[in-house]
Each structure stands twice: as structure tokens, then as C-alpha cells.
Amino acid sequence: MNTDRHAQTDNVDLVKKMNSTAVYRLIDQQGPISRIQLAELSHLAPASITRIIRQLLERGLIKEVEQQASTGGRRAISIVTKNSQLHTLAVRVGRHDATITLFNMNGKSLNEKYYTLGGCTQEALEETLFRIINLFIENHRQKRSELIAIAVSLPGLVDTHRGIVRYMPHISVDNWLLADKLWTRFNVASFIGNNVRSFALAEHYFGASRDCKDSILVRLHCGISAGIVVNSQVFLGNNGNVSEIGHIQIDPIGERCYCGNFGCLETVTSNAAIENRVRHLLTQGYTSKLTVDNCHINAICKAASGNDLLAREIIENVGRYLGKAIAIMTNLFNPQRIVIAGEITKAQKVLLPAIQSCINTQVLQDFRKNLPVVISTLDHHSAICAFALAKRSMLNGVLLQKLLAS
């Protein structure tokens, strides 16, 4: 009997948590919104709405605002989220650097600093990472109100649900329990995720795909990766990772990839691969405005945009390879929008037509209809990708319930 009673209590508590999360999400996404509208959209009784609103108000997560009455008389009271006093420390970890930014829950950057990372072991990276986070917190203690979360995005294979880093491309890690260690060290809710998957989420919340439920982000940098958003959720595999587009084999007799395979997409479309290809052709006597000493990806993009034949041919070739991979993903997921990010987008006038030509010929007609290919509106070096993890945790109730229970 006691077991049944406990089960019933647990079920009631779960329903209450689900209801408060649903109401908060409606306020965040559609505010200013009235109590009547909340009841209609959530299908909850007015009494339940009143209880949840009171709970959220007492915790300082929402606030009431007066709306201008259209016909005079008493102004209606609506609800909006209260984000200015709630802060998240977002950390984007790259292969050799890190960006730390303090955000309010509106996604506004309040303070930001870049750091160089050293060391080639998990222990060394953890020591450096925790040291710079602590330093940033101490230096900006007077400029923040309530720190509610620390979110970290990093390259590699990340089990975001368990907070474990399984693999990183430049250092050896062994099931790094990063989220738990952050919680133990800083005593604040902590979240981790893969850089590109988190970046796709940030584009969905704040960027080029914010009006789409289904989208694909493809980022070209040191490597090439993709993030897939399906029904407003990042699509993840059974261990939290999926869409390693860079390891689609496009040339069986191509160069060996660090993954052990040959001819991966990454071996021809990463920044380093593009730079090496240009450098090789220059040494073979091909003419260009570029030189062997000046063939950085930014210079190549500038030359391609300026109709340098060699640079233009290289970028078009990258676009065709990339377009083939994107066409495969489009046939699989039927997205509403394709977003491209990375330094190569500086040559978008050359790159995008090459990608689009592959979509036009290799994607099902119904899938390619009204499918725009656009450039990311966010800086892919920004820590906004990490902040998106905290934003998601508020909207899905994980962080929200922690705050309500505190």
C-alpha cells in the first residue's frame, strides 16, 4: 500500500513539473502572454495556471507587465520571462583556444574573453579549463547577478545526457566526467555538448534557422561536421552523437583520414585540405594571385570572390563535394533549411551555387522545393553554441526544475 501511495505521489509531482515546464516554455516563446492565453494553449485549468505563475514569480523566473489597452480602460496584465538577472557562463573549447562568455538568459553577451589552451592530456586540459573558468568568475563577480549554469561545448564525441566526453580529436580522453566535475568544482548546474551539434541548436534558437523546426547545419573548419535539428530538437544517436558528415567516403583511393579511412569528405573540404591543395597547385606552376606563403583559407576565399581562376576552381570543387554529402542528408531528413558555417562562407558567391547545383540534381524534387541554402548568422567561434545548451535545459525543464527546487 505504501508503495502505491509513493508511486501516486511521484506521478503527481511529475505531472506538476511537466505542467510548469510547459507554461514556462510558452511564456519564453510567446510572451508577453496573458493567463487566459496560457490556459488555452496549455489546456490547463485556470487554477493550475495561477499556481504555476505564482511559483515562477516567487523564484524570479518571470514577471508581469502591463500591455497597452486597445480601447482604453484598464491595461491587461501579461507575463514575460525575467532573464536579465539570470546568467550562464558559456565556454566554447576549441583545439587550441577557448572562448568564455557571460550571457543573460535572453542570449545577450555581457562579458567575453579569449584564452589560449595548452597541454595534450585530459588532466592538463581540465586543469587549464577550470583555472580560466575560475579566473573569469572572479574577474566578473561584480558584473553578474545569479549564476545558474555553466555550459561547455567542445569538439569530439560527447554524451550530453550523461555529461561525459568520450573522444576528442586532439587529446586522449578516457570517459571524462566533465559535467560532474564542473558541478563538484563550481557548485552550479553544468551541461556539456559537442560544438557543432550545440551550434545547430544555437542557430535554431537565435540564428538563421530560428523559424524552422527542421534544419541542418554544416560547419567547415579544422574538420567538417553537421548538426541536425528535427522537430526543434537536436538529433542525437544512441550515445549522443550522430551526423559525422566529414567521414562520408567520397574517394576510395583518396588521402588517408585520421579516422583510418581513405578519401573522407574531410580530406578535401577542411580548411587545411583546401590550403594544402592550393599550395600544391602553386608549386606545380599554376598561376594565381595567391602565393605559397599566402594561401590561408581567408586569402583563398578573397581570391575566389575576386575571380581568381585557381581559387575559384578550388572553392567550386569543395562546393560540389560538399553538395553531394548535403544532398544525401537532405534525402534522409527533408529539412526546411540548410545552414553553412565556417571561414569558407566568405566565398559564398562561389560556394553556394556549387552546393545548390548538387541539390538540384541529386535531391528528390519534393524535398528540394523551397529549400534555401543560407550562411550562418552566428560567429562559429562564439560561445553562443555552449549557451544554447543552458537555454535548452531551461525549456525542457531540467534546469528550470533545479531552480524551482532551490
Automatic annotation (TrEMBL):
InterPro entries: ATPase_NBD, HTH_MarR-typ, ROK, WH-like_DNA-bd_sf, WH_DNA-bd_sf. The keyword Transcription applies. Residues 22-63 form the HTH marR-type domain. Gene3D superfamilies: 3.30.420.40, Winged helix-like DNA-binding domain superfamily/Winged helix DNA-binding domain (1.10.10.10). Keywords: Carbohydrate metabolism, DNA-binding, Transcription, Transcription regulation. Pfam families: MarR (PF01047), ROK (PF00480). The keyword DNA-binding applies. GO terms for molecular function: DNA binding; DNA-binding transcription factor activity. Belongs to the ROK (NagC/XylR) family. PANTHER family: N-ACETYLGLUCOSAMINE REPRESSOR, ROK (REPRESSOR, ORF, KINASE) FAMILY. This is Transcriptional regulator. The lineage of its organism: Bacteria, Pseudomonadati, Pseudomonadota, Gammaproteobacteria, Enterobacterales.
